[in-house]
């Protein structure tokens, strides 16, 4: 199977959806071949200079850290899914208007074992590792009963207690040196709390307290868990000590819990969206025996409603009221905040349509739900409780503990011409859990982002940066010194092109005008990655 086919397949496996309503698709013909974006590359472990064109603001001091797959083949064996490639970490160091670049493969157990044998030893999301041919028949038979989660942490950089880790969604994360990108320590969540994994998208309170979510699989079935990690370590060897499970939530079906990639958080609540992307635990557990990879156990159930769960961050108690919506799915949250008795939760909602037994991707579109918080036995039934004059979202109380909601669009019709918006980012440092006006993301006219977009929530007008054959990574907002306005700062994005060799560059946009300030051209190839953060040294 070619890398191009692998990439196309991956976008038909984890497609996101709404049901029972009109679905929109972007009409784009003659899409260029972008397979080089998901081709294996060599690491660049020592810093190399870049060529700066334009101006990189001299007030930027720090490094953009990014993570994503970078090696898709060992020997003559290819991975079947984009998510399966070995984690390649990137660092763009910015000082005094100049930029250096380095990259390094995460020395995970998966990477080391695969490299030593020059074949795929460890199973990943879409690739089932075959039994070792060097073992005897009995050993190969027994190996089919082994379930070993990968430690290939290729999704994001996350920060706990001042240390940087790279993370995927299993129970393993790796502490790394943010300057050299060297792997320092493999850390197992399950050694500290009873979870079998955690997301790569934690949220943070202003004091550094981190919140995350992770599943646990017990004798009585699966549970969703809200995790809290304290902001400070007790000693030099401390990593996740002090982490605790704040709340456990039982799925609708404990043998088929929902998949989630992220969650929302307001000042007082964690917002968990239980969506109809389901994981069949029996198929997953028996997959190695039946020759099926993990993704074969993930499916979409359009007949189930979506449920919003609110968890009080102080008490750890789940609120008795559940908020329901039609079947929908989201990968990434934009922001959530409380205002005048409502919790407003925005996310990029993605759509799919089932045709001829296949899942077809449509546009990811930014939308918001408005959840009324003050529900009581006196709350009237069967009438819209959303009294916000500028909102078209609805919230209708069915019973004293159940509210049915519909969303409002956070965009105008013209956004559809750019394929919708994903990888949403905000000015997180100042506006996380607060009312906000702007968010940033990638437009998706192709299978990956092919434009950068700044959206104004008040006017629903947007600004666009887009150039032919250039594919930007998620935008990362950096606040400028002495900033007064929400959009006082810059946007960083790594721009990759499949049609020109060694032509990647770091793009710097003025976040207010969305005009290019400068770019730093990197003389090596870089594959398309997932997520990253800015590590300030100012």
UniProtKB/TrEMBL annotation:
Keywords: Dioxygenase, Iron, Lipid metabolism, Metal-binding, Mitochondrion, Oxidoreductase, Signal
Binding site for Fe cation: 201, 261, 332, 531
Cofactor(s), names only, from the UniProt record: Fe(2+)
Any one GO molecular-function label of the UniProt entry: beta-carotene 15,15'-dioxygenase activity
UniProt main location, coarse: mitochondrion
A GO CC term attached to the entry: mitochondrion
EC number annotated for this UniProt entry: 1.13.11.71
Signal peptide: 1-20
Cellular compartments annotated: Mitochondrion
EC class: oxidoreductase
InterPro entries listed in its UniProt record: Carotenoid_Oase (IPR004294)
One Pfam family it belongs to: RPE65
Transmembrane portions of the chain: none
Reactions accelerated catalytically: all-trans-zeaxanthin + O2 = (3R)-3-hydroxy-10'-apo-beta-carotenal + (3R)-hydroxy-beta-ionone; (3R)-3-hydroxy-10'-apo-beta-carotenal + O2 = 4,9-dimethyldodeca-2,4,6,8,10-pentaenedial + (3R)-hydroxy-beta-ionone; beta-cryptoxanthin + O2 = all-trans-10'-apo-beta-carotenal + (3R)-hydroxy-beta-ionone; lutein + O2 = (3R,6R)-3-hydroxy-10'-apo-alpha-carotenal + (3R)-hydroxy-beta-ionone
Co-factor note (free text): Binds 1 Fe(2+) ion per subunit.
GO biological process, one term: retinal metabolic process
Lipid metabolism recorded as keyword: yes
Function text: Broad specificity mitochondrial dioxygenase that mediates the asymmetric oxidative cleavage of carotenoids. Cleaves carotenes (pure hydrocarbon carotenoids) such as all-trans-beta-carotene and lycopene as well as xanthophylls (oxygenated carotenoids) such as zeaxanthin, lutein and beta-cryptoxanthin at both the 9,10 and the 9',10' carbon-carbon double bond. Through its function in carotenoids metabolism regulates oxidative stress and the production of important signaling molecules.
Family from the record: Belongs to the carotenoid oxygenase family.
PANTHER family, sorted: BETA-CAROTENE DIOXYGENASE, CAROTENOID-CLEAVING DIOXYGENASE, MITOCHONDRIAL
Protein name as annotated: Carotenoid-cleaving dioxygenase, mitochondrial
Species whose genome carries this gene: Sinocyclocheilus anshuiensis
């Amino acid at each position: 199977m070619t890398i191009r086919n692998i990439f196309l397949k991956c976008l038909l496996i984890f497609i996101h959806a709404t049901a029972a309503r009109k679905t929109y698709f972007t009409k784009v013909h003659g899409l260029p071949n972008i397979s080089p974006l998901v081709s294996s590359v060599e690491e660049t472990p020592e810093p190399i200079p870049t060529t700066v064109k334009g101006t990189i603001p001299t007030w930027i001091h720090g490094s953009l850290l990014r993570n994503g797959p970078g090696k898709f083949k060992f020997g003559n064996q290819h991975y079947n899914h984009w998510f399966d490639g070995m984690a390649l970490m990137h660092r763009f160091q910015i000082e005094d208007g100049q930029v250096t670049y380095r990259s390094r493969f995460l020395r995970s157990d998966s990477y080391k074992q695969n490299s030593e044998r020059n074949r795929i030893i460890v199973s990943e999301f879409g690739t089932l590792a075959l039994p070792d041919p060097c073992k005897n028949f009995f050993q190969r038979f027994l190996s089919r009963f082994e379930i070993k989660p990968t430690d290939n942490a290729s999704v994001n950089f996350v920060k706990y207690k001042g240390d940087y880790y790279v993370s995927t969604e299993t129970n393993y994360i790796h502490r790394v040196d943010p300057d050299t990108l060297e792997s320092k320590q493999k850390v197992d969540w399950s050694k500290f709390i009873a979870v079998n994994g955690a997301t790569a998208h934690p949220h943070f309170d202003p004091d550094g307290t981190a919140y995350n979510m992770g599943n646990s699989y017990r004798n009585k079935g699966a549970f969703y868990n809200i995790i809290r990690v304290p902001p400070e370590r007790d000693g030099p060897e401390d990593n996740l000590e002090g982490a605790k499970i704040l709340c456990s939530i039982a799925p609708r079906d404990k043998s088929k819990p929902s998949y989630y990639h992220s969650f929302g958080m307001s000042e007082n609540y964690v917002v968990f969206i239980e969506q109809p992307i389901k994981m069949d635990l029996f198929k997953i557990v028996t997959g190695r025996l039946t020759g099926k990879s993990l993704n074969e156990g993930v499916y979409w159930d359009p007949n189930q409603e979506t449920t919003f769960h609110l968890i009080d961050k102080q008490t750890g108690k789940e609120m008795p009221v559940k908020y329901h919506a039609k079947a929908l799915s989201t990968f990434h949250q934009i922001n959530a905040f409380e205002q005048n008795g409502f919790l407003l939760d925005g996310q990029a909602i993605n759509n799919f349509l089932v045709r001829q037994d296949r899942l077809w991707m449509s546009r990811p579109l930014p939308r918001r739900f408005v959840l009324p918080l003050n529900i009581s036995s006196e709350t009237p039934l069967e009438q819209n409780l959303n009294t916000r004059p500028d909102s078209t979202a609805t919230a209708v109380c069915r019973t004293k503990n159940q509210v049915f909601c519909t969303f409002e669009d956070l965009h105008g019709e013209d956004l559809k011409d750019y394929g919708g918006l994903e990888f949403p980012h905000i000015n997180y440092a100042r506006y996380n859990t607060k009312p906000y006006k702007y968010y940033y993301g990638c437009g998706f006219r192709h299978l990956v982002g092919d434009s950068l977009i700044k959206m104004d929530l008040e006017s629903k007008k947007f600004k666009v940066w887009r150039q032919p054959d250039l594919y930007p990574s998620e935008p990362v907002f950096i606040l400028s010194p002495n900033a007064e306005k929400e959009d006082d700062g810059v946007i960083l994005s790594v721009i990759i092109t499949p049609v020109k060799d060694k032509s990647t560059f770091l793009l710097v946009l003025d976040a207010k005008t969305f005009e290019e300030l400068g770019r730093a051209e990197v003389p090596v190839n870089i594959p398309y990655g997932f997520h990253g953060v800015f590590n300030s040294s100012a």
